DNA sequence: AATAGCAATTGAAACGTTTCAATTAATTAC
DNA sequence: GTAATTAATTGAAACGTTTCAATTGCTATT
């Protein structure tokens, strides 16, 4: 394969000039530029990434470490469809700005810190995107300690942690409860995301505040944790329907979960939206195609992904102007919710 | 940050020995090993990836170039859910074997070859996974020409192209048509994937062969192309239902597409599985949760992803024993299909 | 015609590894 | 006790860039 040295020889200039042509073309004379350009094209030269990165200390790559569960290999955090949309946006935004995306996977059990250590200390990437934050997040603490460029999707409780992008989950739950009570619902259940992650904590705060402000009681039986699978939503819903006094409305952790819940409702001969109202979270594409179509809180994953990436690249490149974005999500009302019976 | 030189000094050995410790520990004496190990740990040393790769000519990274459409940014090839499962498997298998995954995105309009050229010539990756092949695929021709390690998901018509993994789409369609005719269907429509990709060609062969072997006619009106969105399935189904003599069974390009088709059917006051049979393709998780649950051809995306990755890594590492895998997909029968009326 | 000033170019050092021929130390065989 | 063999270690070259002080070649100014 061609090296910069060979290009230089063939073009009749020095390596320094070729390097300049590649990195700051305005510095090289038109005549040389043309000669170099020609040679580069005919030998289909591409600078060697490793050499570049070794010398210049940058990789033009951003890192992402999705947690893929090996036991339930279908699940990828945060929740499959949503993650893919986010990733697609990250990927295309990064490419647009001249960066690549490096994926390294973690499993739920393994300690993630060594992975981040390798990425940071081994200088594999210029910056990292952290997903699914926890209130006290070791990854964020580590990255902060190393002063390494990163942006997280989700907040944390670390005071130093400033660069994030997030959706206001508290607001989302308040809106939803407000909406359901306006339809006359009093018995509101919450099939909630597993405790531990920051977003589940934030949403819980919204839910409990809203319930209190409407003088509604939060029954233990009405709170069921679930993961992001249809099955877990289905199971949770069956538990709720087995209660002596089942809820008239259910807020769920995700659209997928809501689909499972609706499945359970239909199985019992009831109609979602008529007998029991169901609210999802995410507004994945399928939400509008399900029957009945799903009332849900929209998270703009595309926008989140591309803005997070843009923010990260800004930070990598030393521009720290805007360091946080909090989206206000929108409640999309469809047919899976209706007046309380 | 620590370098191998500093580690060597602190441990009282030469750089060569540290390098040996890192790469072939059996070559270094126990005493030295221990000293080095200690120093490495306390200075949290990680070898610099760029330096390593510059010298040793390998990156321990495999490349993947998904096509993300900017106009319809929700679509990622081959079809979102499926792609994510595939990617998750690739990612975790690669990580398991000590490789990372590098993502670079392409858009449908842009010429992909320069991207592959950069990856190959710039030695950004050790091998490439090619998705959604075409019969005459410039990417495959290029990689073959460069003698660069790659594995494709999908075959091509290039004679030299040996390393692939695929699902037997011809068999799948034959099975499906056989099944539908056994239920008494004669009027079978095919909402088929867009022409151009290899898999759509292969499936078409299966479909047409099967129709011929059952002495069934293929009506032009019954063949409608669609992409992987719900909407396109929905639109296609409406067109079929508007026909003077609508089909009694419909085979679709993907589960997502089938959901759209079922949506259209229900909207018309008909019942999928009773009035019209619908068959999907992929068997994504949602297929069993949809109502009615979807009869579909299962593609084992997880397995495909991890086997493709294993195959690629074998090739990268010089072991070429097994170079192709063709999965026989399974028709999963559920409620969206039934006897012809 | 000499000089100052600027634009363009040069060439060597440096980045942090791996590799390998050469060297040293330790062990075995007689 | 010496020679032969093996095991462990060393140190320098090389990988392909970028960077920057030094140099060269022009142009404009006097």
* Count of individual beta strands of chain A: 12
Q: Characterize the quaternary organization of these chains.
A: homodimer
Fraction of residues of chain A in helices? 40-55%
Gyration radius from CA atoms of chain A, angstroms: 25 Å
Question: Which stretches of chain A of 5+ consecutive residues score pLDDT under 50?
Answer: none
Rounded mean pLDDT of chain A is 93
Supply the CATH superfamily name of the largest domain in chain A: Response regulator
CATH class of the largest domain in chain A: Alpha Beta
Q: How many structural domains in the coordinates of chain A? A: 3
Order of helices and strands of chain A: HHHHEHEHEHEEHEHEHEHEEHEE
Number of distinct helices of chain A:
12
Short description:
Two copies of one chain form a homodimer. Chain A folds into three domains: 4-56, 434 Repressor (Amino-terminal Domain) (Orthogonal Bundle), CATH 1.10.260; 61-167 and 301-328, Rossmann fold (3-Layer(aba) Sandwich); 169-299, Response regulator (Rossmann fold), CATH 3.40.50. Helix content of chain A is 42%, strand content 15%.
Topology (SSEs and partners):
Two copies of one chain form a homodimer.
Chain A lengths: L3 H8 L3 H9 L6 H13 L6 H8 L4 E4 L15 H17 L3 E4 L9 H9 L5 E4 L7 H8 L4 E4 L10 E4 L1 H14 L5 E6 L4 H16 L9 E4 L3 H13 L6 E3 L3 H13 L9 E6 L12 E4 L2 H16 L7 E4 L2 E3 L9
Parallel strand pairs in A: 1-2, 1-3, 3-4, 4-5, 5-11, 6-7, 6-8, 8-9, 9-10
Antiparallel strand pairs in A: 10-12
Helix pairs in contact in A: 1-2, 1-3, 5-12, 6-7, 8-9, 10-11
Chain A binds a DNA duplex (30 and 30 nucleotides) through α2 and α4.
């Amino acid at each position: 394969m061609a090296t910069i040295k060979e290009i230089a020889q063939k073009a009749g200039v020095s390596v320094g000039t070729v390097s300049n042509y590649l990195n700051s073309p305005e510095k090289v004379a038109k005549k040389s530029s043309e000669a170099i350009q020609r040679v580069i094209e005919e030998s289909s030269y591409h600078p060697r990434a490793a050499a570049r990165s070794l010398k210049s200390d940058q990789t033009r790559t951003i890192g992402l470490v999705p947690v893929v569960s090996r036991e339930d290999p279908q699940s990828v955090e945060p929740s499959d469809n949503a993650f893919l949309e986010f990733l697609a946006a990250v990927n295309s935004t990064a490419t647009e700005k001249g960066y690549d995306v490096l994926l390294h996977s973690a499993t739920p059990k393994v300690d993630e810190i060594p992975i981040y250590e390798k990425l940071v200390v081994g200088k594999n990437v210029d910056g990292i995107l952290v997903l699914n934050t926890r209130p006290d997040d070791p990854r964020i603490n580590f990255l902060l300690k190393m002063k390494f460029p990163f942006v997280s999707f989700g907040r944390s409780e670390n005071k130093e942690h400033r660069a994030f992008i997030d959706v206001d989950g508290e607001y989302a739950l308040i809106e939803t409860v407000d909406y359901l009570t306006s339809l006359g619902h009093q018995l509101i259940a919450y099939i909630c995301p597993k405790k531990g992650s920051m977003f589940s904590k934030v949403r819980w705060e919204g839910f409990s505040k809203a319930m209190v402000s409407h003088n509604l009681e939060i029954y233990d039986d009405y709170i069921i944790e679930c993961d992001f699978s249809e099955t877990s939503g289905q199971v949770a819903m069956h538990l709720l329907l087995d209660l002596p006094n089942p809820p008239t409305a259910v807020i769920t952790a995700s659209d997928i979960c809501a689909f499972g819940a609706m499945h359970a409702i239909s199985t019992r001969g009831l109609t979602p939206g008529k007998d029991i109202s169901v609210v999802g979270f995410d507004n994945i594409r399928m939400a509008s195609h399900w029957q009945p179509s799903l009332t849900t809180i929209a998270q703009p994953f595309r926008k989140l992904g591309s803005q997070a990436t843009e923010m990260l690249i800004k930070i990598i490149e030393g521009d720290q102007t805007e360091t946080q974005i909090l989206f206000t999500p929108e409640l999309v009302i469809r047919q899976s919710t209706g007046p309380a019976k």
